[in-house]
Design brief:
Blueprint (H helix, E strand, L loop, with lengths): L19 E6 L3 H18 L7 E5 L5 H10 L5 E9 L5 H20 L3 E8 L2 H6 L8 H23 L7
Parallel strand pairs: 1-2, 1-3, 3-4
């Protein structure tokens, strides 16, 4: 596993009980495996119980939204991290798939009320994709995992407010 930088978040953030699903496309696995490694490293650093985190594999990016929605509907997960890679080719196929996946992830999150983060690369070349999977903060899996953690924290704050508990400091 690659070394990743420490995030500003403390490892005792009170999120140890959070349960997150990673839905990862196996297409372009050399890229998506690095995204997954980055996301898992970020989650581990946050102090989550890694035994509670689940990695779900799907064939390609197009299948990510349905798997994410199905996982969210179990109500087991606090957030879903969607990871994949689309590389532009010579036909319009890229635009159709990229649009469908982005809209599908957004719609799935809205329908289930479970936050889903978008760690799906849409690049012009394999080189651009590789540049987004490095061991530093440029790893988009790392970013997607931190966005999921931030969303869980925000939603928990909103739920406290909604339940009449003040968040004043």
């Amino acid at each position: 596993m690659k070394a990743f930088p420490r995030d500003k978040r403390e490892s005792d953030s009170g999120l140890k009980d959070a349960c997150i699903a990673l839905v990862v496309s196996s297409y372009h696995s050399s890229i998506t495996d690095s995204l997954k490694d980055g996301a898992l490293a970020a989650l581990k650093q946050t102090g989550l119980n890694m035994d509670r985190q689940v990695v779900l594999s799907v064939p390609g990016a197009f299948e990510i939204p349905i798997a994410a929605q199905k996982a969210a509907k179990t109500l087991r997960f606090d957030a879903i991290i969607c990871l994949g890679c689309l590389i532009r080719g010579e036909t319009p196929h890229f635009e159709y798939i990229a649009s469908a996946v982005a809209n599908g992830v957004m719609r799935s999150s809205q329908l289930t009320n479970i936050p889903m983060t978008f760690g799906i690369l849409t690049t012009n070349s394999i080189e651009e994709a590789l540049a987004r999977t490095g061991p530093e903060e440029s790893n988009k899996g790392w970013e997607a995992a931190n966005a999921a953690i931030d969303l869980i924290e925000t939603i928990r704050q909103i739920n406290l407010i909604d339940n009449g508990v003040s968040n004043k400091r």
